[in-house]
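Reopening this ticket.

The earlier resolution said the output was attached, but the attachment link was broken on my side. Pasting everything inline this time so it's all in one place.
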Amino acid sequence: MIQDPALAGHNGTATNPSPNPRMSNPGNINYLQAALSEEMDHANLLRSLINGSTAATDPYQTFYFPAGTFSTLAAFTGMLDALENAFIGAYLAAIEELAAMAADTKAGVTTYSDATGTAYTSGQLEYFAKVAGSILGVESEHRTLGRVISNTNPANNLCYEQTDGITSVYNGPSSAVAALTPFLTPSTGPGYSLGTALAGAGAVALPCTGNPPSA
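Inline output:
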């Protein structure tokens, strides 16, 4: 896949694309390299919120993709589009749920607690919704830039991002968890090690800038 002319070109690599400008597109590679840094940053933020330590302690260490996902550019960008749409839907659902939880908390209807039993304040829940919106914006960039790489025009084809059929984060057959669970099961296809991916990320990722929005 990486040697597609829309990426590194014949005999090219992510860090050494073909020097022929007609046979490679380093800018497209940069989109993917920056997205890698952004996704790692988001994962680190989530770990900090759930009292995780390092990626090595994550509950899932292997992820599964349909055979051929990384063989051709068309297969890769098709999967990228599907996943970005699912994550956009997941963050939209999270924002809605967090907003409702904040309203319930502020009204004294109920309380919501973290894994240690400490109750969240309405302000904290509102802030979580803001951060989810901030990440959703980056996932929307990824969706659009994936369409740029695949030369699907217009890349910015939506007036509004969509839920992709996702109606909740955790519960029910239309939840984000249900949509993404197949990528955690060997029946989906070949497995890829999180540890191996992270070990090699430093050689190819481009740094992203900025922090989560302030509370």
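Reporter confirms the inline version is readable. Strands lie at 62-64, 191-193. The chain has a mean pLDDT of 96.
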